[in-house]
């Protein structure tokens, strides 16, 4: 029986060997990282080494890295009324792009009547003119714009947005969960005040995330209260093994980044060309800069749910969009925000590649699409 082909890397990635080894070693430690004895100090060392690794990878200081249970919790922690920083604040409202992840669209701890949405273009890129207009009309805002969209792969103009937001006295949060390990990301270069990350998107374990801040950000209120862990910004005993795996994955991902980006982009382009040639597929956001590994496509008459099942039966793992929305029969909110009709948004299929994707994986995906295209599409 042929080996299955995994093309759903934006949902989650395989565990890197480096992360697995770090976690196994951490599981042998008995100490609580908050304890002052030798066993506790050894556990604390692993946590702090991982904190330093992530900080170095994104241009931050270790003291400004807060580990959480996942990217969703990191986003919820970041979206906090009352945040203030060198650019302004305290923020009194939240503006989010219309194509954000569900955990950002939920608004964190902002009341619903203090949350607004920023329009995007037909290509799924934030409309900076709309952002400017909304910032001019109201008190200081926290603005949340993702670095790269999890469905289309479209890269957002976060550096340009940062200038606009700071000029208006606001703060910028960047959900960089899909960006880390796929493109270079430096919190200072893009002008973000806060950024969020998730371990399992870069070859680390599921269930570990992080919020990273620049210097001078104040007013952050913990979501979880109790003990003084994470410099009193997130209570609860740290997931030492998970955090150690996160740190190891960060190091491995950054070391391989240049080679991985080039190889994935080549395979992505081959995949897109094949999808178009075989059954006239339409690739979304292909006119803007995107992640090197992401393809979101549809074809006339295609139903995403049926296509995902069809690919699965052919031994290919793909998705219909965000993994957090899997199993829900509803149009992609990303494509809806881009102005596509529900009939189009319901037919979008996402294929995402990773560091171990091989040319033969693309060949098998295209062969599966040839079969599916002949059976699923309307004439």
Query: How many DSSP H or I helices?
Result: 12
Name the helicity range. Answer: 25-40%
Report the CATH topology name of the largest domain. Aspartate Aminotransferase, domain 2
Q: Rg to the nearest angstrom? A: 21 Å
> Superfamily at the CATH H level of the largest domain?
Type I PLP-dependent aspartate aminotransferase-like (Major domain)
Strand order of the largest sheet: 2-8-7-6-5-3-4
Runs with pLDDT <50, length 5+?
none
CATH class of the largest domain: Alpha Beta
Mind describing the biggest β-sheet? 7 strands, mixed
Number of strands: 12
Euclidean distance between termini CA atoms: 33 Å
**Which descriptor suits the 3D outline?**
globular
CATH architecture of the largest domain: 3-Layer(aba) Sandwich
Q: Give the integer mean of the pLDDT values.
A: 94
Number of domain modules: 2
Order of secondary-structure elements: EHHEHEHEHEHEEEHHEEHEHHEH
Class based on secondary structure composition and strand pairing: alpha/beta
Beta-strand percentage? 5-15%
